[in-house]
Amino acid sequence: MTIKNNQTLLTILRILVISLFAGMTGACLVALFMATLEALIRNSSRLIPFAEFLTPMAGALLVGSIIIRRFPGAGGEGTNDYIYAVNHKGGRLSLADTLLKFPATILTLGFHGSGGIVGPLLRIGAGLSSFFAGSALDRTGLRDNNNLRTAAICGVSGVVSSIFHSPIGGGIFAAEILRRETMRYSDLFSSILTGAIAFITSAILLAQGPVFDIVAPETPMRLSHTLWLPLVGIAAGGIALLFIIIYERISSLMRRIPLKQPATALVGGAIVGLLWLMKADWALNISMPLFDGMVSGDLSSLPPSDFYTHNIAGFLLLALMVKIIATSFTVGSGMSGGFTGPLIILGVGSGALASRVIGFEAGSPEYFGFMACGLAATLASAANVPFAAIVITTRMFGGRGYLLPAITGAIIPFIIYKSRTIYEYTTTQWQLRNMETGRPCTGEETAVPADIDADNEELREIMSSDKPR
Would residue 216 count as lying in a domain? Predict the structure, then answer.
């Protein structure tokens, strides 16, 4: 009995130590990253004042030549590396890729490549926590075979909880994304504890707000208008599916380019630069002006664009397509950027578009209810995280008045679109190419087994089952 009690105490102590490290590290990581990114976005275009549209190509050249050419695992989205490491490598992640993921993402997004921050930062958080567990805990009396796995999950929870200020949502996200239709409670408990620590550190100690801030009316939408929610959710899920398909096609096309880095990244940077030349810079980097304009319903603050039309619904549809294309070329060419941020913009934009088409005014409870429904739909259908989508969406929109739109948007589209996920196609494709050409990878950080083929059939089989992804 004494031995069992001692083991229980050691388990609790081990989880507390990992959660404290992961939660505080995640909050500090997000704060440092956002401060650095905002500073670079403000100043990067000044580096080429005579031709600002070349800024994305400059970032692609730096990322491709200095980082990704030698460490391809530092590029890409990041979430799939976490999924594979936890489910098939016991949570072991490359330290080199972890450390280089930060400058790779800063340079990609700071020089106006398109993408999000969640995927890259959760990859960094998982890697740092896994390294801490392997280098510190394993040399003490807290050694355990599950330390790396638990630490990686907690690292993700710390980052996601800090970004959204949703400790429960971040905790669920870190565990739910690992498996298509099941979760392990042992993963969930430590993950939510880490989320709480990260939230306290971010909101109270660092005085940081959520990255995505929405001020929604407390008045709920009329009950009769909720009948539109299933259609809004299905439409938003369809846009998320379109994102998956376009990204798959573009990334497959980029893999066929018979060039090495940084040439491939330069191709992606050139496409993004062309969008800048067409005055669509509001769709680049993390697209916060576009997000804020969609939420407020006032798009007049956006710079004039060749994509602008006096039909607001038409412009919203074009804006969503531009964001999909810009992100697909950025991440598909090997640079570092996330998908969760673009999915949030697609979800909010889908809801705003549906509200315009049906005839509800911007700022009305129905307008915000449709956006909440669309946001939950894109996260649930493209990332396959319906429960995390419900909690995060409800938290972002400020209360239980948006619980029904969030539930409707998450559950129905998830049931319809769950056979496809954006992470099915985000394995580090540049490592795959290195295997095909015989160029050695960087060792144990390889994100896929050495015998996987170029079409990713093994990963496709894993992710189409109920087994760990």
Answer: no
